[in-house]
Design a protein that fits this description.
Layout: E1 2-6, H1 15-27, E2 31-36, H2 38-44, E3 53-56, H3 67-73, H4 78-87, E4 93-96, H5 100-110, E5 121-126, E6 133-136, H6 146-164, E7 170-175, H7 185-196, E8 201-207, E9 218-220, H8 223-248, H9 252-271, E10 280-283, E11 289-291, H10 298-314, H11 316-323
Parallel strand pairs: 1-2, 1-4, 2-3, 4-11, 6-9, 7-8, 7-9
Antiparallel strand pairs: 5-6, 5-10, 10-11
Helix pairs in contact: 1-10, 3-5, 4-5, 6-7, 6-11, 8-9
Length: 332
């Protein structure tokens, strides 16, 4: 299989992207197309003995640009050209650490939605006490209708079945309480629809404070709520480990204890790193798109390519299309 990689996306592109691609080409059974400024890519490949297919793209969409305007104006950008290659079936998946909004906009323009989906979503696997939980949406849709949350539940369930091997994933609706009557009108309406839907294993409301217990396999919400939740988790995790590091240096006793605990703390930190699962996946588009974190290093890029390869091999898009056929009558 062939994976298309945006060489110019992310804070450390193209250096870290190219390093991750080299690792993937060496360790994974796939071909890779690097899309971006050819001269810069070749400079990063100067010491590499193998060969990559490179597609030149002279423009870069930055994180501070309006996604839709940038996609329309920058036809020679790495994101637009990369997704054009995916649309033309010259690759099986696309990986980028670039502008999330631009990636979604370009994906909609180039690939379109799969049948049965009104709003594609961004999904991410987050470690919990038991096994990873899939959270969606985490940023694509700030405002949703109840039907959209039902769609997220269906495609999230199919994704989890294929990736995690769980035959009947437990679906939760992110809310301010577990009671059915809790939440705003959109969430309450979505609860009623999900409760009646026979094709997913809906288990009710999921409170944010209980998320990490791992009692749900898939948790759905609007993109505004999901993005705040995800960034809060990221920020608190960094705060906690920075605080522990600072406290361990406060005295000789703490320093010795810190040294003894260092291997265990590193193991815990690594287990909480959701980039280990390859970043986020854009679900609902008619193609495989993986979004790595903007600050991705070569390890995260490698994991993104590995995840994209896995998703493409399992043909998850076709399975989602089939699962969505039963939603034609859901109009809320």
């Amino acid at each position: 299989m062939k994976i298309i990689v945006d060489a110019m996306g992310g804070d450390y592109a193209p250096r870290e992207v190219v390093k991750g691609a080299i690792k993937a080409l060496t360790e994974l059974n796939c071909e890779i197309i690097l899309v971006g400024k050819e001269e810069k890519i070749k400079r990063e490949l100067a010491d590499y003995k193998g060969s990559f297919e490179i597609v030149n793209a002279e423009e870069v969409i930055t994180n501070d640009e309006s996604p839709v305007k940038a996609v329309r104006a920058k036809k020679d950008s790495s994101i637009v050209k990369g997704l054009k290659l995916l649309k033309e079936r010259k690759g099986d998946a696309f990986v980028s650490a670039g502008n999330t909004g631009a990636l979604m906009a370009a994906g909609l323009f180039s690939l379109g939605r799969i049948s049965g989906i009104e709003r594609p979503a961004i999904a991410v696997l987050i470690p919990t006490e038991k096994r990873p939980t899939l959270l969606l949406d985490v940023g694509a849709n700030s405002d949703v209708k109840p039907k959209n949350l039902v769609e997220f539940a269906v495609i999230g369930s199919e994704f989890y079945k294929e990736i995690m091997g769980e035959k009947n994933p437990r679906i939760g609706l992110l809310n301010i309480g577990v009671e059915e009557e809790k939440g705003n009108m959109v969430v309450k309406s979505a609860y009623s629809l999900l409760k009646e839907l026979k094709t997913v294993n809906f288990k009710g409301n999921a409170e944010a404070r209980d998320f990490f217990k791992g009692d749900f396999d898939v948790v759905v919400c609007d993109g505004f709520t999901g993005n705040i939740f995800l960034k809060t988790v990221e920020g608190f995790g960094k705060f906690l480990f920075d605080k522990m590091k600072a406290e361990s240096k406060a005295s000789i006793t703490y320093s010795i204890g810190g040294l003894l605990l260092k291997p265990a703390l590193k193991k815990i930190k690594d287990s909480l790193d959701y980039s280990e699962y390859g970043g986020a996946i854009l679900l609902g588009l008619d193609g495989v798109l993986v979004k790595c974190h903007g600050s991705s290093d070569n390890k995260a890029i490698f994991n993104g390519i590995k995840a994209a390869l896995n998703f493409a091999k399992r043909d998850i898009t076709s399975k989602m299309k089939e699962a969505l056929k039963g939603l034609e009558e859901v109009e809320a």
